[in-house]
Design a protein that fits this description.
The protein has 501 residues and is of the alpha+beta class. It has 17 helices and 20 strands. The longest helix has 23 residues.
Length: 501
């Protein structure tokens, strides 16, 4: 901590309340004088801060009259002249405010401004004696009065819970937070650019559904008064998007919110952004190729490098992504070879021997997946495709013709996290109905994340769906990796929080 920070008094709640009272009095005085800032309807902004502070363009900008607007973040009054900093979406720009230029009355009004007020500054671009590109103000306009006190400059907004609850203050006080969400927007825009260039159509599907299928998750329930029907919030995009493949839209994708009634931790939020895409006449190998290409494109365009720094790890997207089957991965990290395990009893015995907890309802394939979660996931730091899952945990995926106990599915991992989930989509309606039946049995045995039979989806498959590859990407985790963010709440503008009431 610097000496300046040590000597900066910490604001007490009483200080803040008193300052808020003074601000309200200032507003009342402005309104009494006919200067109510809330009556101003618009302000003509000609430039943003970094447009003005562009050193390369300064030769052309010098002497140019510009108008910028933003939040007053600092003010240093020095008699007849003052300096202040205004913050907009791009950053901060300094303004030099002189009484002899803006006039005595306007200068008095300027001196009464508070940190946090929204102002417009109009004036000429120049350089100060210290070489800082600034604006010599000819006009200062109060556009909105801030009645609350911002956190102190040196201490900032550091309380994590408060940052998430009051994201608007977090964005004001923490430049890196604002940069993260600007990058998030750019990531999603680049995804659309990438997919649209490949001929994909962006579509929208229902959020309120009678049958929340497409994933293993518990849904949220709601009631539709007009029809007097109970509905669920979707947990996936899959079943509706595959209906569109049946309808002849050969390449479709959707980016949207899904809702899963689960816990909250550094990687999970009950509402999150999912992208799913489906492409006719390809399979899960096609989805692997697309995933490698998409991630490299995003790394280049958003980060500027295919080698990412995440915390203390370096993640290299430039090399071919590793491909390994789930069985081989489990054997590599646990020493247990499920090719040599032929019965449920043998799988249970192996689980007990290695301390892997399971339930009576779990089949052999479920236990293989439990081994994977216990021994493998955390080791998958570099980009890795985990291929060929057991059929028991993959009710919407085509079986491998040479080994029908397993399916053509992969999960994409980085940093020990599942980043995407892809299939060669099951298009056999008879097999799909049997898979749904098995899921119903699992639900009856206590698996409240099991899926339910969707008759309309089965009808669509009976109409005929071509061979199709499909994949779902967790956008929030993708943003976490690409912005070096530690928790999912750091990349959600308004994460789910427990009510304070």
């Amino acid at each position: 901590m610097s000496e300046e920070q040590k000597n900066t008094p910490v604001q007490t709640q009483q200080d803040i309340s008193e300052q808020s009272k003074i601000r309200r009095e200032k507003l009342a005085n402005l309104q009494a004088e006919g200067k109510d800032p809330f009556q101003i309807m618009k302000y003509d902004v000609t430039h943003h801060s970094m447009d003005v502070k562009n050193e390369d363009a300064y030769a052309e900008m010098e002497g140019t009259t510009v108008s910028v607007a933003g939040r007053l973040m600092s003010k240093r009054v020095m008699g007849k002249a003052s300096f202040c900093h205004v913050q907009d979406i791009q950053g901060r720009i300094q303004a030099y405010v002189a009484r002899d230029v803006i006039g005595e009355d306007s200068y008095k009004d300027f001196k009464k401004l508070d940190i946090g007020d929204i102002v417009g500054i109009k004036g000429e671009v120049f350089k100060t004696k210290t070489g800082e590109i600034s604006i010599q103000a000819a006009e200062v306009t109060l556009l909105s009065k801030s009645l609350q006190v911002l956190p102190e400059k040196h201490h900032g907004l550091t309380n994590t819970d408060l940052r998430y609850r009051q994201r608007y203050v977090d964005l004001i006080m923490n430049e890196d937070v604002k940069d993260t969400f600007i990058k998030r927007s750019k990531i999603i825009a680049e995804i659309r650019t990438f997919l649209n260039a490949k001929g994909f159509l962006e579509v929208e599907t229902p959020m309120l559904v009678a049958n929340a299928g497409g994933a293993a998750a518990r849904p949220f329930y709601t009631h539709f008064n007009a029809l007097d029907e109970d509905l669920k919030l979707r947990i996936s995009l899959e079943l509706y998007l595959k209906r569109l493949i049946v309808g002849g839209l050969e390449k479709v994708y959707e980016i949207g919110r899904v809702f899963r009634n689960e816990g909250v931790d550094t990687r999970h939020n009950p509402e999150f952004t999912l992208m799913e895409l489906y492409q006719a006449y390809t399979d899960y190998h096609g989805m692997m190729e697309l995933t490698e290409e998409l991630y490299r494109h995003l790394a280049e365009t958003v980060v500027g490098s295919q080698v990412l720094q995440y915390g203390d790890k370096v993640i290299d997207l430039s090399k071919p992504f590793t491909k390994i089957t789930m069985i081989d991965a489990v054997k590599q990290y646990s020493g247990v070879d499920f090719r040599e395990i032929n019965t449920l009893e043998e799988a249970r015995a192996a689980a007990k021997a290695h301390g892997v907890e399971f339930e009576d309802r779990h089949a052999k394939g479920d236990i293989l997946n439990l081994f994977f979660e216990e021994f493998v996931e955390d080791n998958l730091i570099q980009p890795t495709f985990i291929m060929d899952h057991p059929v028991e945990i993959s009710p919407l995926t085509k079986r491998k013709p040479e080994d029908p106990d397993y399916v053509e599915r992969f999960e994409f991992f980085m940093n020990g996290w599942e980043m995407a989930n892809a299939y060669s989509e099951l298009n056999d309606p008879i097999d799909q109905r049997e898979r749904f039946r098995m899921q119903e049995e699992m639900f009856a045995k206590g698996d409240d994340e099991a899926q339910h039979t969707d008759e309309d989806f089965l009808n669509a498959l009976e109409i005929g769906m071509p061979p199709t590859g499909g994949i779902g990407y967790g956008i929030d985790r993708m943003v976490m990796i690409l912005t070096n963010s530690a928790a999912i709440r750091d990349v959600l503008l308004f994460p789910t929080m427990k009510s304070l009431n």
